[in-house]
Amino acid sequence: MKLPKSFYHRNTLDVAKELLGKYLVHNIEGVERVGKIVEVEAYLGPHDKAAHSYNGRRTPRNEVMYGPPGYAYVYFIYGMYHCVNVVTNDREKPEAVLIRALEPVAGIKEMALARFGKELPLTDREYRNLCSGPGKLCQALSITREDNGLDLSGKKLYITYPPDERESREKRFEIVAAPRVGIAYAEEAVHYPWRFYIKGNPFVSKK
DNA sequence: AGCACGATTGCCT
DNA sequence: GGCAATCGTGCTT
Question: pTM of the prediction?
Answer without folding.
Answer: 0.96
